[in-house]
Amino acid sequence: xxKKAAFLHAPRTPLKVDTAPFNQPGPHEILIRNHAVAVNPxxxxxxxxxxxxxxxxxxxxxxxxxxxxxxLSQQKITDKIAFTDVVVLPLGLTTACWGLFEEGYLEIxxxxxxxxxxxxxxxKVALVWGGSSSVGASAVQLLAAGxxxxxxxxxxxxxxxxxxxGATHVFDHTDSSIINQLVEASCxxxxxxxxxxxxxDSTARLCVQYxxxxxxxxxxxxxxxxxxxDFPEExxxxxxxxxxxxxxxxxxxxxxxxxxxxxxxxxxxxxxxxKPDAFVLEGGLERINEAVDLVRKGVSAKKAVV
Length: 306
Ligand SMILES: NC(=O)c1ccc[n+]([C@@H]2O[C@H](COP(=O)([O-])OP(=O)(O)OC[C@H]3O[C@@H](n4cnc5c(N)ncnc54)[C@H](OP(=O)(O)O)[C@@H]3O)[C@@H](O)[C@H]2O)c1
What we know:
It comes from Massarina eburnea CBS 473.64. This protein is of the alpha/beta class. It has two domains: 3-88 and 276-305, Medium-chain alcohol dehydrogenases, catalytic domain (Quinone Oxidoreductase, Chain A, domain 1, Alpha-Beta Complex), CATH 3.90.180; 92-237, Rossmann fold. Helices cover 31% and strands 22% of the residues. The chain has helices at residues 41-49, 83-86, 90-101, 134-145, 159-164, 178-186, 201-214, 252-269, 288-297; strands at 3-8, 16-20, 31-38, 58-59, 63-70, 124-129, 149-154, 169-172, 190-196, 217-221, 235-237, 277-280, 302-305. Helix 3 packs across helix 4. The chain starts with a strand and ends with a strand. Residues 40-42, 91-92, 95, 130, 132-136, 153-155, 158, 173, 197-200, 202-203, 222-223, 295, 299-301 line the site of NADP nicotinamide-adenine-dinucleotide phosphate.
């Protein structure tokens, strides 16, 4: 069986598509015939700097969608969704799950796609900074499915999109009075925390300012290297280091609650949608460098897919 992959031979060089060695799956591994690849900011960051790469040449990439070729048992999620649509979810959804639900992070109770959330959850509020980003779109959907009051930020052109994901209120992140607006919308509610889906130093400071004005709260960022500066006493930064890829305890809580329950039935009953929309560059892996460049330049409410 022939396998193709895009190789990075050295930092700051283009990816080169070539034949890759084919390995039979071992115990606890599956073989997937891949049909679509989504590009994340980590891909260009690794291409530009070589960060976290142990040896070259290497194959980058975190998001794939395809058909399972070899597995002892398998659960079919749905066959109504195109690979190029569903591939936008895996890393963004997983990243949002860690930050929102895992022990030692924001520790919010994860949603169920099949049960109605308790009505008192409306009295609990969470902020998602960057609701139109890939990670942010998943965070908004997960919190909305939990029945919480979700405040999100985005550019005004993306307000309708972020509201369609379930955000209760959306605020323009370029508006200088945004902190006052967020604080006003949170007053009288239990504050679950601020999830910074962008992870820039500037967005971290704004999230901390929001929590500081409210007088308490937990801050979590999608990027554990974010420089948040010194924290006021009443604001806690949680999750300073990344959890293992599969979550704690061998991945069981994350897998059971979110991937098995929420993702499976959520995709079928529309509580989880494949957002942001894929921007598909037709032509397969040969267009991977264009896709990475697109993400490097900055996308808005879109995910580059080949
Ligand atoms: N993608 C993943 O699975 C993943 C995994 C782990 C960590 N991360 C990290 O999480 C961060 C976000 O990644 P992503 O893939 O979700 O990003 P993305 O989809 O490429 O982010 C694009 C969005 O970011 C928003 N944005 C950009 N600058 C902003 C700012 N200063 N304030 C508020 N919003 C801003 C834009 O919103 P508007 O267009 O509405 O202005 C745009 O829609 C990155 O630092 C990434 O390295 C991502």
